[in-house]
Amino acid sequence: ETISAENKVHCDNCASLQEHQKRTRVKKLPSILVLHLKRFQFLGQYNRPFKLSHRVVFPLELRIFDISDDAVNPDRLYDLAAVVVHCGTGINRGHYFSIVKSHRFWLLFDDDLVDKIEPSVMEDFYGLTSEIQKSSETGYILFYQARDPT
Q1: If DSSP states are collapsed to H, E and C, what string results for 24-59?
Q2: Cα–Cα separations (whole angstroms), residue 13 to 5, 17, 23
Q3: Which domains does the chain have, with CATH numbers?
Q4: pTM for the full model?
């Protein structure tokens, strides 16, 4: 990540503010990996947060790269286990439901409704593919489970 603008750091050698690179490396991968997709952005000119509905493809299988050289289980493979989906246009309004993998099946939990769904339905929650689409149902929190839970 490039750190710039108002977040530049002071360089003692050249006595000026400089852009810099920030990087986080993982040393020990967790058994359950939770990823929060940043779907909301505060826009100062409107003085409120807006939902970001752009397309974010989340895979059913995930391998983490760019981990620490001395990482434990560096080749750990994850399977998508659950997705929290946000429906709506704003951070203070809308509805949430969950999609959870149970054994070999995907189940959609929406209040008191539970439906079995096909894995291909996940694509419906990636976000907008064009500005014409008006779907506001987007994946928001992803839960991945390690294949080797040790």
Answers
A1: CCCCECCCEEEEECCCEEEECCCCEEEECCECCCCC
A2: 20, 11, 22
A3: 26-146 (3.90.70.10)
A4: 0.79
